[in-house]
Amino acid sequence: MLACQARANGELSHQLGNAPQAAIDSFSSGLFLILIYAATSKRVRGGVARLREAVRSGLLPSWRLLAGVLGGFFVAIQTSIVPFIGVAVYSVASIAGQTAVSLLVDRIGITGGGPKLISPRRIAAAVITVIAVVVSVWDQLQGVDFSILYISLAGLAGVLVGFQRALNGEINEYAKESYTTSLFNFITGTSFLLIFLVILNL
Question: Which residue among 149, 167, 181, 184 is the one 20 to 30 A from 139 at the CA level?
Answer without folding.
Answer: 149
